[in-house]
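pls ignore typos typing on phone
flavin-adenine dinucleotide + seq
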Amino acid sequence: VTRLKIIIIGGGFGGVKTALDLVDDKRFDISLVSENPNFKYYPALYRTATGGKRNISEVSLNNIFVGKKINLIYDSVVSISKDTQSIKTATGNSIKYDALVLSLGVKTNYFGIEGLDKFSYGIKSTEDAEMLKDHLHKQLIEENRLDSNYVVIGGGPTGIELAGALPTYIKQITDNHGVRPRSIHIDLVEASPRLLPRMPKDVSRSVKKHLKRIGVKVYLKSSVQGQTATELTVNNKPIRSHTVIWTAGVTNHPFFKDNDFQLAKNSKVRVDQFLQAEPGIYVIGDNADTPFSGMAQTALYDGKYVAKNLKRLVANEQPEAYKAKKPIYVVPAGPRYAAVLWGKIRIYGYFGYLLRRAADFMAYNDYLPWQVAAQLWSIEDEEENSCPRCTSE
Ligand SMILES: Cc1cc2nc3c(=O)[nH]c(=O)nc-3n(C[C@H](O)[C@H](O)[C@H](O)COP(=O)(O)OP(=O)(O)OC[C@H]3O[C@@H](n4cnc5c(N)ncnc54)[C@H](O)[C@@H]3O)c2cc1C
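k done
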């Protein structure tokens, strides 16, 4: 029996879900090509950056697919030849496909603002998160004092979860290092007139109030003009800081522009009602121009959807059209607090935090056997530091 050869590019939320949903079906021959041998669980990165363990935000693809019949190829895809139905990788491999699923994720965008690429920290990978954590400790060791300001740029969910976790963590490590307590300045800078600009106004207001309560200063209508090693310029005024974290911009993966895909104004790929850029080439998750693109839940949903349609295809059934699904927004903003927007329902505080914990378990469980998921989930609150002065294991 000839099997349909599916190549999936990207070992993230969309790609891994598509592969998991197809891998046990003998009608398919599955290859997953990813430049990174680990699946990144982005929602836990802020925890890793503020004292949490590394492995809550990163799981090896080998572990996810243990015992499964799949070709895992750790390589970067550089081009596609639609005529010969093949892709080319950075190491010169050429791989043929019958159907292709692209889920490459997005890249950081500094909008050309001077100095940010050189001096700011990011929160897009486990390495980024650990670099930030190491910096926070190193600064206390070398200078024996706090930074003048810790500045998070971007009032979206990522900036909020990080800024919300910083007051407690900085206080904790300041104590650990025996540094004399002084007031801790944590600033959250957002260009638009409110936080969470894509969510309803009342949610923005509540989260802002809560952040203020826990010691985060929120600057709205504030745009960043540049950064040097010691200073950030916001609305033409300097802010002294050696700790600036940029969470404010992403742009679509350059692969699509380089390979002449049709792009929408937001640089995402235009797709048809089956999430295809062209027949047999599916674009999903953050790469696709769909209503709720940019969320892990959407990438996961897209992966499931494409897998289901590929199964219909091999069974000679008509494919189903894509129906976008509104995600549930859960934004942690400080210890034991999260804002939840679930349809029209809003939930704030400790119950929101419990829902976030439940969502994390469900997300781990979507990718891992439940025992492994439960183990990872149970250590989400545990601490890990490589700092020689801190005693926590
Ligand atoms: C800090 C942070 C927190 C977040 N928190 C949440 C949250 O709480 N809830 C939520 O719903 N969403 C959240 N998101 C968004 C969510 O993570 C993304 O929407 C989701 O990861 C998109 O999935 P994807 O498959 O499109 O891309 P990704 O998960 O980014 O996967 C892309 C994969 O492609 C690989 N790749 C890239 N280029 C190549 C190449 N050329 N060749 C081969 N492989 C390549 C990458 O290494 C990666 O493995 C968060 C994002 C960040 C940055």
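The pocket of flavin-adenine dinucleotide is lined by residues 9-15, 33-36, 42-43, 45, 76-77, 103-105, 123-124, 157-158, 253, 255, 285-287, 294-297, 299, 327 (CB under 6 Å). The two ends are 53 Å apart (CA to CA). more later
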